[in-house]
Amino acid sequence: MIIKINEYSDIPIYMQIRNQIVMGISSGELSSGEQLPTVRALSMEIGINTMTVSKAYQILKSEGYILTDRKNGARVRMEINQSKSLSNDNKDELKRIVSEAKISGIAKEDFDKIINEMWGD
Amino acid sequence: MFVCIVPVIIILYFSMYPRKWKNKAKIYGINNRPEFKNPQSEELIDIIVNTHNKQATALLIVICVISVILLFVPGFTIKMVAWTVFIYIALFAFSVPYILGNSEMKKYKKAMGIVSEKVLYADLKNVGNVHALNKPMLYIANISGAVILLFSFLCDSSLFPFKLGIYSNTYICTAIVGSIILTNLIILPIAFMADNARNNVISEDSDINANYNRSRKKIFSDMAISVTWITNIIAALAVLTFLFFDSEVMMLLIFGIYMLALMFFSGLLVFKNRALENKYLGKDNSLLEDDDDNWILGMFYFNPNDKRLNVEKRVGIGWTVNMAHPFGMAIAAMGIISIIASLLLLVWIVLMDQTPIRIINNNDAVICHHLRNEYTIKKADIEYVEYGNLDELKASRTAGTAMESIAKGKFKVNGENGCTLFLNPEVGKYIKIKTNDKTYYISDNTEKETIELYESLKQ
């Protein structure tokens, strides 16, 4: 899985790492139980501070996507807790995206099609 | 110098100036991109590449011709000064077509509307997992080198039945073998650095990235091990020369072979890297990351957002420093200072070579003066004086200067430690002055003056 970090993005780098790992898990590019690189190795590879990667991993751990321990490093959880609902933050984000789509005149069918493509249907 | 500069320039010629640019990862330090491979761009880039490659070819010929001419410059000091200045000028001049090419490619890229997105790529599956260094082999090679060094030390210390003849207990053999083996200690961390280097992302497919990066690291690993073994062989030959041949010509020959072997392996490294680029970066893949703007003149890396100190070079072999990193700045400053210092040192060497020694023989003392050095030998302290031919002396320098026209400072002479030399070796004669606490070997600027001084001292 290739992760892309935009240095000039408004989104902080740790959040970009977090988002892309979540997308990787969702798309299946990162499988259950898959080993993630160590904080040090990933920070060296991208050329960023180790604290940035550490922060991304801490968020992923607190959200229940990954497990970390001293011996095995970071791994994708074998079974990720399925809440069957969207968080309020994500609902707000989705609301914003739907609003922008409506303003830009996209038909609901086209919008559904995009969602279905992303969903993997 | 000739053995060094000519192969280096030839290696640089092939690594800096691409012939079939379409199959190369970089064109004058600019990442080769799919956008460059449309007919209109190809035509323009062909013109840029042909123009600067022709300039480089012309420079290569000029540098080779001047190198041959410099072989016939008389006098060691003048030759050394001429070579050093020439090497600096040659390396700078040879970079000029590359710098111009880099500037034109950057302008063309801008004209095409390609703006760096400042996106960093990392292949998550390969991070920290792609290694190719054969560590056991590297350790064995280094241990072998250490054994050779230990052997030379034991021979030097007369702890072995093998005798080093006149060099026994001088530790010259150990010093020379140690300086050769030092190359291994430089290669060792570089080999590990290369093995842990960042992986390039050339494809969305992790397997392609892994294979490409593993191959890259394998080439460097093989090279590091080969050069370590070559260094060991050269060190062993140096010890054997000391033990059985005692020949300076033989030693020079060994060093010549060593230089050629290093050049050969450097050339091989460039050749193998090019073959790898042709295989992986030809049609379907190219480096995804665009950090061209971080490379000043396509050579010097300056990226304040990158926390790494070492980055792979854009041109040539090996690694360079990020000049925006605090240590990188310090290393770059040291590099500039060392270049300036080496030029100032040349001026000092010329001064030492051209300034004649001055001996003042007055009633009470003999005063030897040369630039900032002055020795005063009180006549009352002199026990005896001797006159002889310089080829009778076996002298090794402890601290001081040994040049064609001046030898001064502390030397070990015919097994006696702490002797003070102050003579012009070109005269070929010496006066040995033994005082109650020191031994001096001096001469004047001519044989006649030296004899006159001896006669005066004898009385």
Question: Characteristics of this structure?
Answer:
heterodimer, A: 121 residues, alpha+beta, Arc Repressor Mutant, subunit A, 2 domains, 3-stranded antiparallel β-sheet, 5 helices, 4 strands, 53% helix, globular, B: 459 residues, 9 helices
Number of DSSP E strands of chain A: 4
What value does the Rg of chain A take, in angstroms? 16 Å
Give me the count of strands of chain B: 16
Highest-level CATH class of the largest domain in chain A = Mainly Alpha
> Helix coverage percent of residues of chain B?
40-55%
Give the N-terminus to C-terminus distance of chain A in angstroms: 21 Å
Strand order within the widest beta sheet of chain A: 2-4-3
Indicate the CATH architecture of the largest domain in chain A.
Orthogonal Bundle
Domains of chain A, number: 2
Name the average pLDDT of chain B. Answer: 87
Shape of chain B, please?
elongated
Please provide a written account of the structure.
The complex is a heterodimer of chains A (121) and B (459). The mean pLDDT of chain A is 89. Chain A has helices at 13-27, 39-46, 50-62, 88-103, 108-119; strands spanning 2-6, 35-36, 66-69, 73-76. In chain A, 53% of the residues lie in helices and 12% in strands. In chain A, helix 1 (13-27) crosses helix 3 (50-62) and helix 2 (39-46) packs across helix 3. In chain A, strand 3 (66-69) and strand 4 (73-76) form a beta hairpin. Chain B is an alpha+beta fold. Chain B is built from 9 helices and 16 strands. Chain B has helices at 2-16, 39-70, 76-111, 135-156, 172-195, 206-245, 248-280, 326-354, 447-458; strands at 26-27, 30-31, 119-123, 295-296, 300-301, 310-312, 319-321, 358-361, 365-370, 373-378, 382-389, 395-402, 407-413, 416-423, 429-435, 439-442. In chain B, helix 3 runs antiparallel to helix 8. At the A-B interface, strand 1 and helix 2 of A face strand 3 of B.
